[in-house]
Amino acid sequence: MYCIVWLLASPRFLSMEEAAEILKRVLGLPYCTEENSEYGVMGDSHHIMFMYEGEAYLINNLPQPYMEPEEGFLKEIRDLRLRNALENHKSWLSIDYLPGKKSGKPDMKKVYPILGKIAAEFYKEDCLAIYFTETHINLPAEPWILDALRSDSPMETIKEKFQQEANPAVIGIESENPDMQKAVAEARSRWPEFNESFENRGLDDHYAAKFPFTDGENEEFMWITVEDIIGEDIFGSLDNDPVHLKNIQAGDRVKVSLEKLNDWMIIQGEEILGGFTVKVLQKTR
């Protein structure tokens, strides 16, 4: 099966007219709802079929969970954003490629750019996660994914970004974990290295630090891009959208105290320094 699936927070209505307009915009052809037209879309709000260059494609839009993973499986997912998406999505929308029986093995390097560009047009704030059925890659919905979907080689870009962890995952791990405690202690003891490097930073260098953020009883550890350091206060912008916190979002300017430091990271070209807790988290995956 070759399809890209959005997991949605709630059911979404999709009219035939809206689908035709999206296809017209993406593929540059006069798609419409006329049955006898060469570029007519067929079906209803839940299943819309269309043809492109002699190949069949299908848009599914169903008001039910795409998957209902068992609780034990969910606990194995360390990325809290992905766990939340799988557990709480209520609907799904997919773009499928339907290879003909006589077409032989499909040229997916040609097909995926079509699927990707269409999928990107269906992105809205209700998208919680995205799933690639052929590769079984499941990711929380992030802005960088749209750029990848719109690229000429979306799957290669997705795989590369996924391996590089372009957006550090919000991961759950027990605070009593001895390896994590050692990593946090090392990050704090070596903070002077970060501070000294930051004072002599280059234009292309990237400085990040991780701190706890709270909203009521909920607490999540997230990375910020460090923009200034004044004494014991660190100023920057939040890199990640939280899972459960409602009082903060990615891009917000924040001020945090050094005493709450959990980790730090310096990226200078291809060299990465720090990331002490990241190494522990990687072992838990």
Describe what is shown at a glance.
This protein is of the alpha+beta class and 285 residues long.
Topology:
Layout: E1 2-8, H1 16-27, E2 42-43, E3 47-52, E4 55-62, H2 71-75, H3 80-88, E5 91-98, H4 108-121, E6 127-132, E7 137-140, H5 143-149, H6 154-164, H7 178-189, H8 191-199, E8 206-215, E9 218-230, E10 233-238, E11 253-257, E12 263-268, E13 271-274, H9 276-284
Antiparallel strand pairs: 1-5, 1-6, 2-3, 3-4, 4-5, 6-7, 8-9, 8-12, 9-10, 10-11, 12-13
Helix pairs in contact: 1-4, 4-5, 7-9
Strand order of the largest sheet: 2-3-4-5-1-6-7
- Which sheet architecture does the biggest sheet show? 7 strands, antiparallel
Mean pLDDT: 86
Helix segment tally: 9
Which sequence of SSEs, written as H and E, runs from N to C? EHEEEHHEHEEHHHHEEEEEEH
Distance between the termini: 27 Å
As a percent range, the share of helical residues equals: 25-40%
Find the count of extended strands (DSSP E, 2+ residues). Answer: 13
Sequence stretches where pLDDT stays below 50 over 5 or more residues = none
Shape: elongated
Radius of gyration over alpha carbons? 22 Å
**Beta-strand residue fraction:** 25-35%
Quickly count the domains: 2
Structure description:
The two termini are 27 Å apart. With 285 residues, the chain is α+β, with helices and mostly antiparallel strands. A hairpin with a 2-residue loop joins strand 8 and strand 9. The strands form 2 sheets. A 7-stranded antiparallel β-sheet has the order 2-3-4-5-1-6-7, sandwiched between helices.
What attributes characterize this protein structure?
285 residues; 2 domains; SH3 type barrels; 9 helices; seven-stranded antiparallel β-sheet
